[in-house]
Amino acid sequence: MSVNHQSSASRSVYQGEAHHKKIQRVAILGSTGSIGVSTLDVIGRHPERFSVVALTANTNVQRLLSQCLTYKPRFAVMSDSTSAQKLIGLLREAKSDTEVLSGADAICEISSHQDTDTVMAAIVGGAGLLPTMAAVKSGKKVLLANKESLVMAGSLFMDAVAKSGAQLLPIDSEHNAIFQCLPHQSLPHQSQHQRDVRKILLTGSGGPLRGLSTKDIREATPKQACAHPNWSMGQKISVDSASLMNKGLEFIEAKWLFDVTPSLIEVVIHPQSIIHSMVEYVDGSVLAQLGNPDMRTPIAYGLAYPDRIDSGVSSLDIIAAARLDFEDPHKENFPSLQLAINAAESGIGAATVLNAANEIAVDAFLQHQVSFGQMTDSLQWVMEHASWQEPADLDAVVALDGYARSVARQRVNSL
Ligand code: NAD
Ligand code: MG
Predict the structure, then answer these.
(1) How many angstroms separate the CA atoms of 78 and 72, rounded?
(2) Rounded to the nearest whole angstrom, what is the distance from the C-alpha of residue 250 to the centroid of ligand 2?
(3) Which of 75, 165, 251, 279 has its CA 20 to 30 A from that of 334?
(4) Taking 70 as the threshold, does the pLDDT of residue 97 lie above it?
(5) Where are the domains of the chain?
(6) Is the bond preceding residue 73 a cis peptide, omega within 30 degrees?
(7) Is residue 148 lining ligand 1, measured as CB closer than 6 Å?
């Protein structure tokens, strides 16, 4: 049981010394987002270890400009050509050498570029699927924050990792914690370890709506839903945290990353977000990874793996934290979690449909088009009314994603 297939994990462990001397050239997909900014913060602390080869953004020209001037990447990619033109003009004025590209294909190109060693996959949503897969297929070291791509492609994603020899490291804090608690350092005895694990305890804070009445949850506003008590994140994942869909997507993510049956994964609500997840072994030992809730810790772990580097995260004040609480998730009030667990038990088609429907519903909720309750109801509706076959390849996943988005869009428009 390990997120790394054997060859890449042993490569890191045994060639660790050699790869210190070489500067790691990192491409950050989604550099203007919450994970992207945290990644640059960690990289900026270690110029002797890392350089930035490429940065990409959707439409935020100003932030990408300032990142380009600070980190001097060889490439900058904007999703559309209008934004790219603006960036070109501003970079020229600043006498920057960064080359500007545009479009989804260009993001895939820099992901698989020969000068890229490591790809931080931090685009939000299904838009991250093809660029992340491009990095995987070209055998890069892939730091996976974009959980939606793995949720959608599942077995196809993991097969591509095995085939290309890519090194996949989880950045989602829970999966990073689980990875740290698994005995991956002592490969190649994986199958033995797989039998030794009794349970994976996937923790979650419960989000900003935890403890509210059913009625108050259904009427929650975007502002309430985005006010996460412990983590500062992008809007989409914040809403997913409020509905527990984030935990659901993470459930599916854990199934693929650690190659476990869903019955081995248990979701535990832990409101303080000090423990980031746990692994229980057959002898009764439970290993946990703890720390302040700051994504720079898992990002630093992924960037420097198997070494440890300063991430800028302050020491955990365990006395101030004082207590750690745990409870079962309230599945009746947060039906999205069960929908995702059902999808994990079903296949990649169900997960792709659920993920697509969720992106449409979250967007409609953020635009005040549907209520929080209608948002989660619409997922249930799509799962019951859409029909699909298990996708056999990536093209089929992309097609199914498009179909599910159109079904979901019709549904939210009818509400
Ligand atoms: P964010 O909204 O803050 O940033 C998203 C980034 O993706 C931005 O740089 C944006 O420009 C880019 N982007 C958005 N749409 C795009 C498109 N269509 N094409 C190309 N680029 C696009 O999101 P975030 O919170 O940084 O999350 C990024 C990913 O990391 C998500 O998949 C999320 O689930 C995952 N993640 C985030 C956190 C966190 O703490 N923020 C924790 C765990 C996992
Ligand atoms: Mg997480």
Answers:
(1) 16
(2) 7
(3) 279
(4) yes
(5) 17-171, 190-292+329-414
(6) no
(7) yes
- Domain 190-292+329-414 is of which CATH architecture? Orthogonal Bundle (1.10)
Domain 17-171: CATH class, spelled out:
alpha beta
**Å from CA of 274 to ligand 2 middle:** 13
Give the mean pLDDT of the chain. 93
Mutate to test the pocket of ligand 1, among 29, 31, 34 (most ligand atoms within 8 A of CB): 34
Centre of ligand 1 from the C-alpha of residue 189, in Å:
35
What is the reported pTM? Answer: 0.94
C-beta contacts of 385-393 below 8 A and 24+ residues apart: 385/411, 386/353, 386/357, 388/349, 388/350, 388/352, 388/353, 389/349, 390/347, 390/348, 390/349, 391/156, 391/348, 391/349, 391/352, 393/156
Judge whether 27 and 54 are in contact, CB under 8 Å.
Answer: yes
Helix axes 296-304, 34-44, angle to 10 degrees: 60
Mind listing the pLDDT tens digit for each residue in 99-145?
999 999 999 999 999 999 999 999 999 999 999 999 999 999 999 99
Measured distance CA(76)–CA(65) in Å, rounded: 9
**Residue 180: Cβ within 10 Å count:** 20
